[in-house]
Amino acid sequence: MKLKSDFLNEINDRGFVYQASNIEDLDLTMCKNKIGGYIGFDITNSSLHVGSLVQLMLLHWLDYYDHKAIALVGGGTTMVGDPSGKDETRKLLDKKEIDSNISNIKNIFEKFINFKNKAVVINNYEWLSKINYIDFLRKFGSKMTLNKMLTFESIKNRLDREQPLSILEFNYMLLQSYDFYYLNKHHDCTLQMGGSDQWGNIISGVDLIKKISNKKAFGITSPLVTNSDGSKMGKTVDGAIWLDEKRLSNHDFFQFWRNVDDAQVSKFLYLFTKIPKSEIIKLSKLKGSEINDAKETLAFEVTKIVRGHEKATQALEIANNTFKSNINDLRLNNFTIDKKLLDNDTFSIIDAIEKLKLVKSRSEVKRLIKSSGVKVNDTNYEEPNFSIKKFSNKKEIKISIGKKKVGIIKVNN
Predict the structure, then answer these.
(1) pTM of the model
(2) CATH topology of domain 334-412
(3) Which CATH architecture has domain 6-222?
(4) Buried-exposed string 92-103: b where 16+ CB fall within 10 A, e elsewhere
(5) C-alpha span between 212 and 209 (Å, rounded)
(6) Average pLDDT score, the chain
């Protein structure tokens, strides 16, 4: 489908559009006028992870084409908990925790939208905390039926699995619908975007605006992005891929993208970079070992957006030194140890890997060693007693876990 407005044409070509309400009318509206659009973010942690990257890029493109991009932080709704796509009730955070998370996450938004232009961050606690519950139910609760709410996948799936769904969570759809209504009324916002699991919530907001204000509103959802094993994007066996460098190093962030599955590279170039589509078509044609060039481009471009050009350049240098030139780059995770601790066998390979935070548990280290998954100075580690005494005369000891994780021990003589 060829769309006429710059924004919709861009995101449609790049694969962001999964579902849309009345997209032809929205396309016509966006050709004629600049509009406001928003995406909501639950503030359940001090950083967003790459599972939020599709939504952040959607806001970026909305801002790029000079529409008003609104990042709505759920200071109010996070206190309730969104049941969409969840198998169990979320842990409830208090306001102090949520406010601290919001303060940290605002720095991430600055990488994607320009607050000197039209973009804003708004906290829905501003209005949700002031609601008179009886008045709210009379005016807005009366416009939504349980019959319709029960047809939405996010609710239906939870009930089909006979998992508890509290009244607190059931209110979430009404509160998110009210958010859209409030932003439409006070911030001239006519578009809500979100992941595919948000379709029911978004359409409820579109309907609420129509019923109360008799205005047009629109919704767009993006497809669920998964890892190559089908798991939800953002979480890996080693933990979340955080956007904040305080939670995950620039090198590890870069390496996550450098090591994505070959089949994902083209899709990720469209979704997570600003590379022109004509260039992505060329990169997508690379096969065999040449696809590593496309992966390196992907890793550099995503890291540049999320962490900045300088950090991306440093991460690329570290990767080239470590994996191409076989240079021990001391910008990698490292620590210094006295030689006598190695000579006395009081510090083992397990201790070293744990201190370098390359693996989550000591039992996992032992399993990796047994399966030849650990290298010391680029040679498979096979010592039966977990000793690294034989390396104590080296100035630096490089420890590698698979192709992705590397750390350096500096030996103090």
Answers:
(1) 0.86
(2) 3.10.290
(3) 3-Layer(aba) Sandwich (3.40)
(4) ebeeebbeebbe
(5) 5
(6) 88
